[in-house]
Amino acid sequence: MQLREIPNGERVKLLAVDGGCSLQCRLAAMGLVPGMEVTVISNIPRRPIIVESYGARLTLCQKMASRIQVLKANGIKAVPPSNGNGQCRAAARSTAPGMPCRRRICRLREMAVNQSGTIRSVKAQGELGRRIRDMGLIPNTQITVVGRAPLKDPVALRLRDFTLSLRNNEADYITVEVAGGACDEDVEHCPCR
Amino acid sequence: MTKTLNIALAGNPNAGKTTMFNALTGARQSVGNYPGVTVEKREGYLQADGYRLNIVDLPGTYSLTAYSQEELVARDYLVNERPQLVIDIVDANSLERNLYLAVQFMELGVPLVLALNMMDEVRKSGKKIDTARLSQLLGTPVVETVARSGEGKHQLIESALERIHGDDSRWKPLEISYGPDIDPVLQEMTDLIRGAEFLTDSYPPRWLALKYLEGDVQIRSMGARAGDIGEALERMARRVTEHCKVTLDTIPEAIIADYRYGYIASVTKQGVLVQRGHQERIIFTDKIDRILTHRFIGPLLMVGVLYGMFMVTFTFGTVPMEWLEAFFAWLADVVTRLTPPGLLQSMLVDGVIAGVGGVLGFVPLIMVMFLGIAFLEDSGYMARMAYMMDRVLRIFGLHGCSVMPFIVAGGIPGGCAVPGVMGARTLRSPKEKLATLLTAPFMPCGAKVPVFLLLGGAFFKGSAATVLFWITIGSWMTALVVAWVLRNTIIRGEATPFVMELPPYRLPTLKGLCIHTWERAWQYAKKAGTVILAISIIIWSFMTFPSLPEATLQDFARQRTAVQSALPAKPDPAAAAAAGRELLRIDGLEAEAALKHSFAGRLGSALESVTLLAGFDWRTNIALLGGFAAKEVIVSTLGTAYAMSDVGEASQGSLSNRLRQDPAWSRLTALSVIIFVMLYAPCFVTVVAMARESSWGWALFSMTYTTLMAFGLSIAVYQVGQYIFPS
């Protein structure tokens, strides 16, 4: 079955990726290779899917998830055949850091709930900039998006040991290097489009 | 003679600063869990070791810049008043962010003692803080405290006294390296400042130079007044800014913040802070938040909470309110019996007791309401409400926190604008707060509802609920649209940054809640004794003087005697009842004549030529003028003006009949009056509350613009209506 059909909390094993080398490489770079097990953390229709593997959370768009074939973990007997991806996996390993299809830096606004990352830059100036910095939002800070208000704005962040919220147009001044994949359906550069 | 020592309490909002202040001084003072409740400077006293410690509670701030009012207040106090010591209350749960402020105190050089607060939560969470090591690395005493239980407060005072008496009690600014891009020019600027002795008696030179690089508005304007030195510093700061822009694509301010946090990290990483996993409280808060701020359930729960609070307030609040009303009715009765009839009696009973009594009657309501608000604030839920509502309210130039004042003021019909306006103080952003203050009184408060019910019942054959529903919708729309217009005209300006902490949920302490509630209710009651008393007397005299001429009075007296003497000698119940009705009718006519003759009546008649445009005759005018004292007065004054001697609940039906039969009233007139009452000037108690929260200028502005707007709309509706449906 497809990854997008898996409900929250289910543990599954990756069987294959139906897609070109580009998509396979990209997923491999994120650590998603056939044979591995992942847990679906959040799967809401029309929202990015969040999966966890080895403690890292990755975000995938629904379209991408529909191309990933999985098997429910409780029924797994043997490692299913991998879909001719040997070459790709190797390629992914050697080119991962500078791969053209990998987009890891994104604006804070584009991050999905439960996604974590490290702040790369804060471009805000004046009062807003100062307030942001006073709260400890400075480069190299680890943050996790913990929620969005009912209308998706403002956004709630966890950083260091506390939670704070800011509006999306304020979050636009902050760029983040996300842990795992950066894919949100609002993002233009999603490789699966 | 005991020596007085000045100690300032400073720290981040929500760090427990105010709780510590209460624990130390036992003073009455407010505690909040919502960022920035304490805006005023508060003082308390404490005797220790033969000293009198004068403790000042500075507003909670995250930093010492000059952007927000709170930060300026705190900074100016430190620099101008030069307290012997600053106790920085640090929330040990988020040590690094809290140390950001501490580092700024140290750069300013004030003698500092750190109080690591909420250590109980830290210990439970499995995190470890090496206090001795922290103290050694920062070179400042560090005390572990738990403000809620008072743990560590004695050690805190001991350390403070020790520090004051120690050898290093002078101001010794900390110098942090800001890296190769900033340091050289910082040194250059420092030398220049020292050489020119620019403000060096108040501030450390290096700190001044740093503020120039950070673009501090206050310091730069001081420099501009000083002349050459200011210009030279500006030039140097500009040079660095350009250099940073070109080479690093950033601004000096950001570099400075980075290095400050870097300094803090270098301290905490030397074995001061050992973190293990996530804190229990944060996990617990996350779990609650998953429900309370859920996309669908969250807003529903919020409506439930608001509605519940509203019901509680007006269910529990009205009981003591009725007691107070009964008490004032009894007092009026006693005064009537004790004083001779005449002007003095009338002033005491109808002016003072009715006016002040009416206002004090709100006190129980306000106390219950504020108990609710204080609970929402202290528990941390208020911040979540702001978080959920912000997207909608921002469209209209308001803030997420504006929802509370709106609801309380009557967003659910039956509220009261007074606590609503007072509730707006939880807004931290000045512009949004002002817009909220100015629009919250549009909401259908409990005193306007009887007017709507009366007119709705008389002219619109629908259920009262339907009428009220549409009025409520109309009020909300007006409030939001007007807020939008205000924010785009006279209160124009960028939205204040929303960046707001979502504090962990905490169960508020009963003591904190009581202090909080009591303080606000007391502030309100004090007003009743002063300003409101004076205004009551003015309004009373307005509706009493000049009294009817002697001839007219005698005329009414003659009519009464005629009725009485016409009674047959034999007791006849039917005739007696008829005579009683006739006497009441005459009383009513006399009251009507007196009202018409008074200043208010004359004003009402004089305004008639203008107000007829909107369909208001002189009777309506007087009622609406009276409504400025309190909206409850509208119905009773209409009654008097229509010579109904006693318009209580029971006789309202007859007033509505009377209005329906009056040729001056039509559906259109009723609609026009409803619109006017919905929108015109808030009652004077609200105006006083508004002046307290902003300024008299804004309060007067609110009275004027609302009335003009209401009148304009009423005219428009009435004229267009007459054109479409000519009668």
Task: Provide an overview of this structure.
The complex is a heterodimer of chains A (193) and B (727). Chain A has 193 residues and is an alpha+beta fold. In chain A, helix 1 crosses helix 3. Chain A has 2 domains: 96 residues, Ferrous iron transport protein A (FeoA) (SH3 type barrels, Roll), CATH 2.30.30.90; 74 residues, Ferrous iron transport protein A (FeoA) (SH3 type barrels, Roll), CATH 2.30.30.90. The longest helix of chain A is centred in the middle third of the chain and has 10 residues. Chain A has a 6-stranded antiparallel beta sheet. A 5-stranded antiparallel beta sheet of chain A has the order 4-3-2-1-5. Chain B is an alpha/beta fold and 727 residues long. Among the domains of chain B are: 163 residues, P-loop containing nucleotide triphosphate hydrolases (Rossmann fold), CATH 3.40.50; 92 residues, Orthogonal Bundle (Helix Hairpins), CATH 1.10.287; 204 residues, no CATH class; 42 residues. Helix content of chain B is 65%, strand content 6%. Chain B is built from 33 helices and 9 strands. In chain B, helix 3 links the parallel strand 4 and strand 5. The termini of chain B are far apart. About 2% of the residues of chain B have low confidence. Chains A and B meet through helix 4 and strand 10 of A and helix 3, helix 11, helix 12, helix 17 and strand 9 of B. Strand 10 of chain A pairs antiparallel with strand 9 of chain B, so a sheet runs across the interface.
